[in-house]
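Re: that chain you flagged

S.,

Sorry for the slow reply, it's been a week of failed gels. I finally had a moment to sit down with the sequence you sent. For the record, here it is as I used it:
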Amino acid sequence: MQKIRKGDKVVVLTGKDKGRTGEVIQVMPKEDRAVVRGVNVVKRHQRQTQNQEAGIITKEAPIHLSNIAIADPKDGKPTRVGFKIDGDKKVRVAKRSGDVIDG
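Prediction finished late last night. Pasting the structure tokens below so you have them in one place:
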């Protein structure tokens, strides 16, 4: 089970977007990276294709998982993630507050 999943609210810990929060759009476990909405935005030059015109587009670039942390459900501050067996299900738990992260 992954500690950071698609749809999680995360806080950026280091880099040019330090302190920003966003939602995880995509997780790439093999590369240990994630794409977060509104974070690590880069400009790319786009060549013209049949269905897209040329120009400079902005998009989110992947950020390393070590540079982001899940936002605590209680106060929104960064927290580490632990696991707990709840009945017969394994759930993610915020180490900071003890709240269950999984909906």
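What I noticed first: The chain has no helices and ten strands.

Talk soon,
D.
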